[in-house]
């Protein structure tokens, strides 16, 4: 009969390369590259919060409307930015098309944007070393220099025409530039170069009569961006900075009318009073003389180019257009008079198609100037834009925004590079079918779209917050404002699942762990409805590969009582360079049929098994459709999906749901070490290194909202529940709250590694429970429940090194499962059952395996123990040398040192205080005089385990080659001139024949008889419990006694066997780490088998005690082998008592009945103190803790 397998196609780790703009969920830290975006700010990345600009550690060019203060929390910001690389080159921006017009004066062709350049002398003014600002911090001069350099590079390639307002940020510094319309960009480049040389906070050439002839540069710390913005705003508004002093005059090219014969710029400014700004003079008004002849202002125009087209001089242009600050407030579509008279009515008119007359906002625009330039009032502009996309009012004009300057239909908003949803996605056309602009380009998964055009699933993206104007596409200051698919409610959960599923994952790949591993045969038959076997992979020829887990898989296929699922993937296979592409290739059209045929009816190497694998997007959906069509109806198809929008959005889950039976939803690992430097991974934590729970209930809820909004029914989703924690090393153990931080980078956790999971940052519940019950070397252990995240928190460690771990214990798991079930998701958890026989079955099987392996592995060990003795002796000299390390060794304080350079006179010093002659390129000698012999050997034994009898004193000598200096041409290589380094009367390892290392094989041999006696006793007891002969006590106490009594010696034996299995793999030519591992494994065997030796222990005590010291010798002071001496000092301790009572060994009388002996043995184990248990190896304690947990869960019979 064919096994009833079902299939899991796993998505774990298989995602496409995501390139969504950083404003989207889980965004990049920096804007797009200037090299990719080009020189036009319209194509740069839009940023709406200064913190997003601050978090980028690259050099950034950016612009913003200077009238929207970055220091005002009520301001709505649009910052257009791009990243400039160190070797950035900018494509030259095309000059705006400024038409030339003939006149009666026969104008010459303009030399620069319709005007001519005239070289003129100016007197720059240098500002104070620091601006008046909120912060006292000054930017680093190198940071200012780099920001200025990038500004200069950009300006050098930009269009010659128009006003320039631009900022550059480099690390701690921000530099702002204002250049009036009549300053040539070539002149600005030179001005920026001179600013960098002066190393001051401001330099300006400020003309009270004309902002168009003003140029200024300002620098500040980035935290004082508002101060730099204010300076730019002052220059734009016709004010000059105060507290400046004149500098050396300079010559610059400025643009003037082609008719101007000469041009003279003032070289000084009006007298400035302290603390004030100087306003430019206002030209006198002229009387109107009828309508004047006009010129329209185009992009990039200046007064000089307009005067040229008018055929008049610059002075005449000012005379005919007497309004204040004309040259600094020119706007496209504005008109100027070319002769005396009044302007005709140029109020903007709607376009022929009914669209309003549109205007694009620039960086120095405000409603007042725009209204004046277009013969409107501010109120009229407000009225025209009530329904304009993004209109938040005159107080919040945004750079690049399209607004209405007449009645009519609002225009499509300006496209925003990188926008992924809404009407501002580049290339979006105006709808003709009545579709609301907000509904254009909806987000994948029906996720929320914010007002800035980016998708997400958190409250930041999903909460509506329209501006006070009520216009579409707006958000209140400090918010993002949702425009489509808004809301944070779970949907699609009206129907309960037909069957509640309890799914367990069996990690076949964990068999290499030293502890907390299990055989698939140990899975209880009635606890789970589905078991997922992890993991199979895919070969390069698209066949199924289970070679890494074949042994456990062969047992798995024979089991019954639950549905069996083979899962494909795994993090390593899914992400490593050699294999990650295979799933994607397998689901491509050209390979899809081959892969499905290999999956079903079955690959040759695993007959009748029906596994599968995903890829991504449409290929993946097509693959699932084909696979579903070939699977029999009784087989099920499922897949695991990530609970992250960033990864899940690539997949059409609504369509996939039609072909799969259920999804495993990975609502765990929501946070981890990988979050570091990801500002979007956790709200409010810019560095991404705040302590957050990886099973946060609120974030789990948000993930459930995301996938149900995407179209998947809740009853089709199995919500993930974990039995492990993500742990972090706290930067400050006294900190509490969501903004406490952890140490390490995104790839390296500094958290303690668990003894079984052996991975920093990942630790099992069992290991955490052991820390709580048996803190061991940890002086700090604190546990509590964080109600905000609905997580258990454990803090543990020592002062200066405390870890923080978030997990769910049994109670929280139960609460979480009930909450999930109440929302009609398809998951359940079964109650505990009676487990007497199950526990004894595991112990019985474990003993049978141990007996077989123990007896076979105890034979043929002569060569291994020979290597053990040889390698142990090899450790002695390196440990002595470490103890006596020059300059810092712990043994040096017991000596005086007599030192000298070669052929020099000997001098005496303390060995710790002597000069570091070993760092000098010279020969030398040191003679050691032992002044505290007892102190030295006591410390040596305590630190290294080395006995005094193993040490002799003598001379060592080695040499280095003297530095030959620079080679001379034609001389070739110089021979080595030896510089000898000698140590006299130096402690050294004595000869091997004088060093006795206890041979642990004698203990192994002495234990064999009593191991066999334990087998006889346990077989008898197992049959008795199985036949219910011990069920006559209250609450099955006799059966419970059997579990407790036998667990201790069996676990001891298992510990010895686990060490033995690996020893045979180590050969004589092993590398240093393998040698060390063999020694530690032999010590572990000794520790575990001593109680089995019984009465033969007496003559062997000397051997056992000397063996115990070897752990110190090889540098493993924390290893359990050091407690051998403590165990053998008390032959009445629990290990001896338990084994004696149940097997007649040692102190056991052998006169008790089997039931009585088991009861006494159980009591003996119960009297074992935590401090005694702590002497056992961690692996033993972990397994013992599991047995005790089983005992506590045994249920009473009715």
UniProtKB/TrEMBL annotation:
The entry's keywords: Chitin-binding, Disulfide bond, Glycosidase, Hydrolase, Signal, Virulence
EC number in record: 3.2.1.14
Annotated SUPFAM superfamilies: (Trans)glycosidases, Chitinase insertion domain, LysM domain, Plant lectins/antimicrobial peptides
Gene3D superfamilies reported in the protein's UniProt record: 3.10.50.10, Endochitinase-like, Glycosidases, LysM domain
Keyword Signal among UniProt keywords: yes
Family, similarity comment: Belongs to the glycosyl hydrolase 18 family. Chitinase class V subfamily.
UniProt protein name: chitinase
């Amino acid at each position: 009969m064919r096994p009833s397998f079902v299939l899991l196609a796993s998505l774990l780790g298989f995602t496409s390369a995501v390139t969504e703009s950083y404003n989207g969920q889980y965004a990049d830290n920096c804007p797009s590259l200037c090299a990719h975006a080009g020189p036009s700010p319209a194509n740069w990345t839009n940023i709406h919060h200064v913190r997003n600009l601050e978090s980028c550690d690259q050099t950034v060019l950016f612009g913003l409307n200077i009238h929207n203060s970055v220091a005002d929390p009520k301001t709505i910001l649009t910052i257009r930015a791009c990243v400039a690389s160190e070797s950035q080159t900018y494509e030259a921006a095309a000059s705006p098309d400024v038409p030339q017009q003939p006149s009666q004066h026969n104008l010459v062709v303009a030399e620069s944007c319709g005007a001519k350049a005239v070289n003129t002398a100016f007197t720059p003014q240098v500002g104070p070393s620091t601006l008046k600002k909120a912060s006292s911090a000054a930017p680093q001069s190198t940071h200012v220099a780099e920001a200025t350099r990038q500004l200069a590079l950009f300006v050098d390639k930009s269009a010659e025409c128009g006003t320039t307002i631009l900022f550059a940020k480099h690390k701690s510094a921000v530099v702002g530039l204002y250049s009036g319309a009549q300053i040539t960009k070539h002149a600005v480049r030179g001005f920026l170069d001179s600013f960098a040389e002066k190393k001051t906070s401001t330099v300006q050439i400020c003309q009270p009569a004309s902002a168009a002839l003003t140029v200024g540069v300002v620098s500040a710390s980035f935290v004082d961006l508002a101060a730099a913005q204010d300076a730019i705003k002052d220059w734009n508004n016709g004010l000059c900075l105060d507290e400046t002093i004149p500098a050396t005059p300079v010559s610059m090219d400025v643009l003037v009318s082609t008719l101007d014969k000469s041009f003279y710029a003032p070289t000084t400014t009006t007298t400035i009073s302290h603390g004030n700004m100087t306003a430019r003079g206002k030209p006198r008004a002229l009387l109107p003389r009828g309508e004047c002849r006009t010129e329209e202002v185009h992009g990039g125009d200046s007064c000089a180019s307009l005067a040229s087209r008018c055929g008049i001089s610059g002075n005449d242009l000012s005379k005919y257009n007497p309004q204040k600050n004309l040259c600094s407030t020119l706007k496209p579509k504005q008109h100027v008079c070319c002769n005396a008279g009044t302007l005709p009515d140029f109020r903007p008119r709607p376009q022929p198609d009914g669209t309003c007359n549109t205007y694009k906002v620039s960086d120095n625009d405000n409603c007042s100037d725009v209204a004046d330039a277009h013969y409107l009032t501010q109120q009229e502009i407000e009225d025209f834009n009530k329904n304009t996309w993004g209109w938040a009012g005159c107080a919040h004009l945004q750079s690049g925004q399209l607004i209405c300057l007449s009645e009519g239909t609002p225009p499509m908003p300006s496209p925003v590079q990188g926008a992924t949803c809404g009407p501002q996605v580049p290339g979006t056309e105006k709808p003709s079918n009545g579709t609301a602009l907000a509904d254009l380009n909806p987000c994948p998964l029906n996720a929320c779209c914010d007002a800035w055009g980016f998708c997400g699933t958190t409250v930041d993206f999903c909460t509506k917050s329209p501006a006070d104007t009520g216009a579409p596409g707006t958000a209140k200051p400090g918010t993002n404002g949702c425009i489509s698919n808004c809301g944070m409610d779970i949907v699609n959960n009206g129907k309960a699942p037909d069957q509640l599923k309890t799914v367990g994952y069996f990690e076949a790949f964990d068999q290499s762990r030293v502890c907390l591993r299990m055989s698939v045969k140990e899975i209880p038959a009635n606890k789970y409805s589905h078991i997922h076997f992890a993991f199979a992979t895919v070969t390069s020829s698209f066949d199924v590969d289970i070679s890494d887990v074949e042994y456990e898989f062969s047992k798995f296929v024979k089991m019954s009582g639950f549905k069996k699922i083979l899962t494909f993937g795994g993090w390593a296979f899914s992400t490593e360079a050699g294999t990650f592409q295979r799933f994607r290739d397998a689901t491509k059209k050209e390979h899809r049929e081959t892969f499905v045929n290999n999956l079903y009816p079955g690959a040759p190497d695993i007959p009748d098994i029906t596994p599968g694998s995903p890829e991504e997007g449409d290929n993946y959906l097509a693959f699932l459709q084909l696979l579903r069509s070939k699977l029999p109806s009784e087989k099920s198809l499922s897949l695991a999906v990530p609970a992250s929008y960033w990864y899940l959005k690539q997949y059409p889950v609504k369509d996939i749901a039609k072909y799969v039976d259920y999804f495993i939803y990975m609502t765990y690992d929501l946070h981890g070490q990988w979050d570091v430097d990801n500002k979007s991974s956790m709200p409010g934590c810019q560095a991404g290194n705040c302590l957050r729970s990886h099973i946060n209930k609120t974030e789990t809820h948000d993930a459930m909202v995301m996938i149900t909004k995407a179209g998947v029914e809740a009853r089709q989703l199995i919500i993930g529940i974990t039995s492990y924690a993500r742990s972090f090393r706290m930067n400050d153990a006294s900190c509490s709250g969501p903004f406490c931080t952890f140490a390490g980078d995104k790839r390296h956790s500094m958290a303690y590694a668990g003894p079984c999971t052996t991975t920093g940052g990942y630790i099992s519940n069992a290991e955490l429970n052991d820390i709580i019950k048996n803190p061991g070397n940890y002086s700090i252990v604190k546990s509590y429940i964080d109600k905000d995240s609905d997580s258990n928190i454990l803090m543990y460690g020592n002062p200066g090194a405390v870890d923080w771990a978030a997990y769910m214990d049994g109670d929280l798991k139960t609460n979480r499962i009930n909450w999930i079930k109440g929302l009609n998701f398809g998951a359940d958890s079964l109650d505990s059952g009676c487990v007497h026989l199950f526990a004894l079955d595991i112990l019985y099987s474990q003993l049978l395996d141990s007996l077989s392996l123990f007896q076979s592995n105890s034979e043929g060990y002569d060569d291994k123990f020979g290597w053990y003795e040889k390698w142990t002796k090899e450790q002695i000299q390196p440990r002595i040398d470490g103890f006596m390390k020059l300059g810092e060794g712990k043994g040096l304080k017991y000596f005086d040192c007599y030192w000298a350079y070669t052929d020099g006179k000997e001098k005496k010093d303390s060995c710790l205080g002597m000069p570091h002659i070993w760092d000098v390129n010279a020969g030398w000698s040191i003679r050691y005089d032992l002044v505290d012999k007892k102190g030295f050997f006591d410390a040596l034994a305590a630190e290294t385990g080395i006995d005094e009898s193993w040490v002799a004193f003598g001379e060592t000598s080695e040499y280095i080659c003297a530095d030959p200096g620079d080679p001379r041409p034609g001389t070739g290589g110089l021979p080595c001139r030896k510089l000898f380094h000698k140590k006299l009367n130096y402690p050294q390892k004595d000869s091997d024949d004088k060093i006795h290392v206890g041979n642990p094989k004698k203990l192994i041999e002495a234990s064999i008889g009593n191991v066999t006696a334990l087998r006889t006793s346990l077989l008898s007891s197992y049959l008795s419990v199985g036949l219910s002969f011990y069920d006559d006590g209250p609450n099955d106490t006799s059966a419970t006694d059997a579990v407790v009594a036998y667990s201790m010696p069996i676990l001891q034996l298992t510990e010895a066997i686990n060490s033995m299995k690996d020893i045979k793999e180590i050969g004589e030519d092993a590398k240093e780490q393998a040698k060390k591992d063999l020694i530690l494994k032999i010590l572990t065997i000794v520790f575990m088998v001593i109680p089995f030796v019984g009465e033969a222990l007496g003559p062997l005590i000397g051997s056992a005690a000397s063996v115990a010291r070897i752990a110190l010798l090889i540098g493993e002071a924390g290893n359990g082998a050091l407690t051998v001496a403590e165990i053998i000092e008390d032959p009445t301790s629990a290990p001896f008592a338990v084994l004696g009572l149940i097997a007649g060994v040692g102190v056991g009388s052998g006169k008790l009945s089997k039931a009585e002996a088991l009861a006494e043995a159980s009591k003996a184990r119960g009297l074992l103190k935590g401090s005694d248990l702590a002497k056992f190896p961690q692996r033993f304690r972990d397994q013992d803790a599991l047995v005790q947990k089983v005992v506590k869960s045994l249920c009473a019979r009715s």
